[in-house]
Amino acid sequence: MREVQAELDTYLDYYNRRRPHMALGGLAPLEFLAKIRRDSVPQGVSNVVAEYRVLLLPLGVL
Question: Is the pTM higher than 0.85?
Fold first, then answer.
């Protein structure tokens, strides 16, 4: 039974991490997820945090 589970784990790792999927534009699922995360980060997020700190400093909050 352990051998079957090991083979299944190997296949699922290949299928979910490395196998290109046509429905995902030819990317492996983890590559697709990374692309979505990278592309969905709004521009200037770090600037928002910096501006927030500038607003709070005069109030003595930070």
Answer: no
